[in-house]
Amino acid sequence: MASTKPGQRKLQILQALATMLEQPKGEKITTAALAARLDVSEAALYRHFASKAQMFEGLIEFIESSVFGLINQIAENEPGGVDQAHAVLQMLLGFAANNPGMTRVLIGDALVNEDERLQLRMNQFYDKVELACKQSLRLAVTQGHGQEADVAARASLLVSYVVGRWHRFAKSGFRHNPTEGTALQISLLLAA
């Protein structure tokens, strides 16, 4: 890794961390183990990140920018509120399926015994996802699907469904694909 640029080095560290999080046993990741995986010293890690918490923040930033970028694309390209909500849920489940290590961050497993602010940030992430669901459901109401009085409860239910699928995926050692069989389930959740 001696000839890489600083930005590339940071990315390599985050990629290695995400890969280590894909291990089904879900053991606590130490900076020593991460440094060994990258064949560098722990001091080399700390030249790029002030703490392990900053490394996890880097993963959370990746999750946020990816997920909310995709949610914005869905909102722009899908005129139907119900279809928007359906696409957002499918995307969230697909993101986890494609990024198993990130799923452990999404559900908080990887953040246990880490800085408390990391879990608070993930809670804010859930709130923003729920807000996106509310926006799609409110659009659906204006299009004749559902009732305004049900929007908040339904959005909360949708987020709980996704988080439950993420948990099952992670707790199964990444064997239960979170997208499997979801088209019908999501349609039932979104039925007016």
From TrEMBL:
Q: Which UniProt keywords apply?
A: Coiled coil, DNA-binding
- Taxonomically, the superkingdom here is Bacteria
Query: Which residues carry the record's DNA-binding region feature?
Result: 30-49
Matching entries from SUPFAM superfamilies are given as: Homeodomain-like, Tetracyclin repressor-like, C-terminal domain
Name of one Pfam family that matches? TetR_N
Give me the segments passing through the membrane.
none
In terms of NCBIfam families, this protein maps to:
PRK09480.1
Q: What is this protein called?
A: Nucleoid occlusion factor SlmA
Tell me which species this is from: Massilia atriviolacea
On whether Membrane is a keyword of this UniProt record, the answer is no
Q: Which gene encodes it?
A: slmA
Signal sequence residues: none
Q: Which InterPro entries match?
A: Homeodomain-like_sf, HTH-type_TetR-like_transc_reg, HTH_TetR, SlmA-like_C, Tet_transcr_reg_TetR-rel_C_sf
Q: Tell me if DNA-binding is a UniProt keyword of this record.
A: yes
User: Where does the HTH tetR-type domain lie?
Assistant: 7-67
One GO term in the molecular function aspect is: transcription cis-regulatory region binding
